[in-house]
């Protein structure tokens, strides 16, 4: 626990000590999750997308068959649903049909609770009776406890537990259970995925690749609405931030529609970047904006910052180098009826900053008065490279600095594998800007991208001594010439 940064007070908590005293280490995470938010200083994320096959214990064996497909499916690479059938012996109570409902309520903690499995079945020997299936884990050795016997006595039910052959099929097993049964024993099982409309996006590991088509089909079977499963085949390192992918199962339809923070977007997932895990971050930044503010989105993608900002009545300048992202950005602006509120560009990020952004700041900042509430924000969401673009702000403007309150705020994203990622991001930003940001910036952990790799956002107002340079005749002519070359937004009507 110390390795994961949990405080000493956690180990001293009576609730935790009692719950965990007889618990194996893997189960400790479940205990921690139960108390997350109840114990001050404790926050636990239990990953649902990955788990490991743990060695069986004696206590597990009675319940193991109920949650495991037939062992012969081990090593299967082409899905055969019939092979998952198995019959297990479970405890049942014979009760009169008219008291079944009452019994289920009275023994709700003892009755089998398994999605997809009936708790009550016909009695083949008596049409006036029903068989109520009990949880074999709660009825060890098919013997009822005192509390259960007391309930049955009150209902005038004979406390005799019988054995019943329950047939389990592919439909009765969860995707994790199916994959754990198929993959080599002890191998990591991944059933988690990113959902992008009707598409499930996986990042499979090498040992899972021989089973990739089976995994894809299982995900389609077990997740209503998913009709296509893809696997990323390389790291996102291209100029346009998209990646090669393989369709594992389902239809090869990669144009999809998603909804994020009550705004709809359409996109071709094979040609543009979209990550549903950034929904909270998109909302966080937009929440910082006020109506009338100005947003410059340097790497806008299909518009998850730009479009909600425009709906909030901000003035928005959105840019993306990828022609596909640019076209889908135009499309989504029209889809959300903000095409007259956003100026859209298809430029290199550096040229966008040196051209349209500098032009707008040159016009807007000098006339900004102290009593005005307008703020300028620059979002740079290209974590692999954005920090390297910060040097553009060095003497971007020529003239006398405006008030400190009017200086643009930058929200720049980056990846870090450092032991102290916040310090690492700040130091790299300072190196690009050529000044210290101590006491003048904040860092926010966006998400964990991979083991020992974090995505962070550093926010700061551009220091006046970085942004401005006093003019000299030659520099003034050079800047005027640059702006006069005409970095104009492409009309949305085109």
TrEMBL record:
Gene3D superfamilies, per the entry: Met-10+ protein-like domains, Vaccinia Virus protein VP39
Annotated PROSITE patterns: SAM_MT_TRM5_TYW2
A matching Pfam family: TYW2_N_2
Domain SAM-dependent methyltransferase TRM5/TYW2-type per the UniProt entry, residue ranges: 193-464
Gene Ontology BP, a term: tRNA N1-guanine methylation
Gene Ontology CC terms, in alphabetical order: mitochondrial matrix
Keywords: Cytoplasm, Methyltransferase, Mitochondrion, Nucleus, S-adenosyl-L-methionine, Transferase, tRNA processing
Entries under PANTHER family matching the protein: TRNA (GUANINE(37)-N1)-METHYLTRANSFERASE, TRNA METHYLTRANSFERASE
Role summary: Involved in mitochondrial tRNA methylation. Specifically methylates the N1 position of guanosine-37 in various tRNAs. Methylation is not dependent on the nature of the nucleoside 5' of the target nucleoside. This is the first step in the biosynthesis of wybutosine (yW), a modified base adjacent to the anticodon of tRNAs and required for accurate decoding.
Family: Belongs to the class I-like SAM-binding methyltransferase superfamily. TRM5/TYW2 family.
Protein's name according to its UniProt entry: TRM5 methyltransferase
Species per Swiss-Prot/TrEMBL record: Fregetta grallaria
Gene designation per UniProt: Trmt5
């Amino acid at each position: 626990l110390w390795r994961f940064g949990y405080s000493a007070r956690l180990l001293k908590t009576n609730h935790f000590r009692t719950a965990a005293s007889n618990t194996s280490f893997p189960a400790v995470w479940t205990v921690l999750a139960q108390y997350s938010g109840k114990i001050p200083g404790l926050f636990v994320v239990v990953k649902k997308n990955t788990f490991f096959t743990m060695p069986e214990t004696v206590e597990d064996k009675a319940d193991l068959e109920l949650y495991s497909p037939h062992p012969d499916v081990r090593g299967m690479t082409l899905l055969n649903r019939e092979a998952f059938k198995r019959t297990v012996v479970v405890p049942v109570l014979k009760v009169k049909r008219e008291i079944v409902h009452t019994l289920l309520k009275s023994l709700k903690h003892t009755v089998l609770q398994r999605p997809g499995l009936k708790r009550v079945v016909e009695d083949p020997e008596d049409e006036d009776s029903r068989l109520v299936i009990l949880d074999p884990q709660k009825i060890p050795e098919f013997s009822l406890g005192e509390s259960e016997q007391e309930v049955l006595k009150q209902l005038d039910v004979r406390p005799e537990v019988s054995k019943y052959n329950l047939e389990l099929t592919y439909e009765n097993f969860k995707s994790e259970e199916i994959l754990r049964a198929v993959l080599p024993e002890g191998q990591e099982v991944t059933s988690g995925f990113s959902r992008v409309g009707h598409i499930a996006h996986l990042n499979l590991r090498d040992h899972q690749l021989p089973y990739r088509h089976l995994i894809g089909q299982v995900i389609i079977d077990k997740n209503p609405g998913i009709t296509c499963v893809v696997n990323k085949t390389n790291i996102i390192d291209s100029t346009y931030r998209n990646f090669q992918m393989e369709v594992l199962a389902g239809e090869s339809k990669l144009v999809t529609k998603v909804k994020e923070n009550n705004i709809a977007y359409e996109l071709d997932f094979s040609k543009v970047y979209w990550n549903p895990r950034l929904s909270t971050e998109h909302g966080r930044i937009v929440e910082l904006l006020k109506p009338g503010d100005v947003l410059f989105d340097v790497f806008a993608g299909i518009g998850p910052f730009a479009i909600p900002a425009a709906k909030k009545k901000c003035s928005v300048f959105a840019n993306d180098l990828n022609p596909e992202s640019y076209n889908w950005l135009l499309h989504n602006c029209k889809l959300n009826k903000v095409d007259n509120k956003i100026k859209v560009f298809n430029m290199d990020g550096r040229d966008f900053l040196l051209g349209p952004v500098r032009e707008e700041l040159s016009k807007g900042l000098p006339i900004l008065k102290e009593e005005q509430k307008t703020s300028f924000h620059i979002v740079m969401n290209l974590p692999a490279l954005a920090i390297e673009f910060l040097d553009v702000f060095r003497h971007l403007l020529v003239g006398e600095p405006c008030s400190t309150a009017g200086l643009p705020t930058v929200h720049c994203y980056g990846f870090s594998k450092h032991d102290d990622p916040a310090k690492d991001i700040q130091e790299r930003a300072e190196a690009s800007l050529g000044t210290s940001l101590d006491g003048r910036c904040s860092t926010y952990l966006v998400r964990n991208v991979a083991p020992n790799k974090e995505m962070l956002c550093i926010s700061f107002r551009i220091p006046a001594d970085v942004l401005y340079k006093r003019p000299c005749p030659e520099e003034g002519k050079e800047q005027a010439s640059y702006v006069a070359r005409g970095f104009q937004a492409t009309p949305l009507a085109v």
